[in-house]
Fold each of these.
Amino acid sequence: MSSDLAKKILLSFDVEHWYLGYKLRGITGWKVDSWRDYKNIETILSLLEQYDSKATFFITGQYAEDYPEIIRSIHDKGHEVASHGYSHEYIYNQTPEIFSEETIRGKAILSDLINNEINGYRAASWSITKDSLWALDIISNAGFKYDSSIFPTKNNRYGLYGAPDTPYKVIFQNGTDLLEIPPQTLKVGPLKLPLCGGVYLRLFPLWINKIAIRKSNSSGVPGRVMLHPHELDSDPPRLKVNIEAWLVKYYRISKVKSILKNFLAEYRSVTYNEFMREYNTDSFPRKNLSSFV
Ligand SMILES: [Zn+2]
């Protein structure tokens, strides 16, 4: 491990309309309130500036169509703009044809806005599972250089438990490959805990999240921390929701800003693009998709 790799994180934000989480769960009572989208991004950009940090923003095409000036502002401040698909539909609910169309469309919207290459893709809700592995081929063919959509754990919505928990290359039948950068997990005995992102960052104590980052750093890989802009809204509308949605939308939500500040003060954050430039990705393990299903 080079000393430069000590205390380093890949910091990312999954950017979609703030109310999408309610809408997808069938929760009613919210209003579109665009000002929340502006306010949440402004909070993130000013924190990153304050700590002289850079991050990767995975953004949906629909969000970019509604807020082109936000996308340009993210890019102009030196952060990485990457794709979070177009509509945020779960990939395993789509046909390959529709997914392909949305993937190309989402990428083109972003690259036209910032007049730059879009290298990274992340699926809505980590929705590349054993039922949608075909999507990786489409992502590669669309010209992405890396993907970050496979969660190497398992719950009722997503996950591929047998997938590697550190970066690797997915090898396709024709010999081409795609860099896969998974989110953070931590092995505890037979368990693999999802950590450092979204609700998991808030469910588990900060020190457990930091152990996961330390373990990654000591093996020469940055920790992976991800959040949604809506999690920086310490005063979201209080709607009637079930327990799962309550955890995702409200549990310790008022603490997120201070947790992010804590990370930014302690770790050097880098973009996924920077990670690809700094690393010899040819040295990463090569995996056939069939090997971890
Ligand atoms: Zn998302």
Amino acid sequence: MGHEVNQRIVGATPAGAPDRESAAAAVREMFTSIAPRYDLLNHVLSFNIDRLWWRRSARTFDAILKRPAARVLDLCCGTGDMAFALRRRAGSEAWQILGADFSHAMLLRAAAKAAEKTPDKGRSARLGWIEADALRLPFPDGHFDLVTSAFGFRNLADYDAGLREIARVLAPGGECGILDFGEPRGLIGQCYRVYFKKVLPAVGTMISGVRGPYAYLPASVERFPAPDEMLGRMRQAGFREASWTPYTFGIAGLYRGVKSV
Ligand SMILES: C[S@@+](CC[C@H](N)C(=O)[O-])C[C@H]1O[C@@H](n2cnc3c(N)ncnc32)[C@H](O)[C@@H]1O
């Protein structure tokens, strides 16, 4: 694609946070503040399409998930829905699916939801939760066969550092899948932007009772690199076969890459 990759640090900057550390702290506080209502808001504001996106992304990685002893990490797992979708696709031999997030409140909800679900005993992969920062993962090099992240990667304070960290913990030939929002074009894009920038922040603020996070959401999507640029950054971080598949007119999309051997 020959797209030039901008070399300056690019990442989330909630409310103009001046550096990486304060950006990360602001993101963590923001998600912690909306954790109690996060699922309800997700489903209402996306008209439940989020469920289809998680399932479709998980299905993409069937070949890895059905492998005996596959090691899977879902980064920025929040309340766990992407991890649950991965487990549904995983073979019984999958060793373990780990969800990692730096918001304790989000992880507590993920664990509570996991306890409510009753997977076929002994016939489905085990789930585990770990409190960790995506930019400093507590795992050795080459540990995982698959790393996913749904609607979380966009919130990292440094996207290149995030991609390098994902590449580090992946085994050579391992895959990464980053599901996140995009900006649809054309007439659909125009209508969607009205919804995303006006209706969604208003409804989100009303239901969550917290001002801020739902204004940050459209702003963070606007700042996120366009697909060509993101693919360039993935290649630079050591991923080959980098690709982007738009979902629902490009409202969301899945970035995929294979860690170079
Ligand atoms: C929009 S939520 C997505 C949650 C879930 N993956 C989903 O699809 O619903 C983003 C999550 O990313 C987490 N997050 C953001 N930056 C992070 C970081 N640097 N390290 C770990 N988790 C992070 C937040 O705490 C939050 O739970």
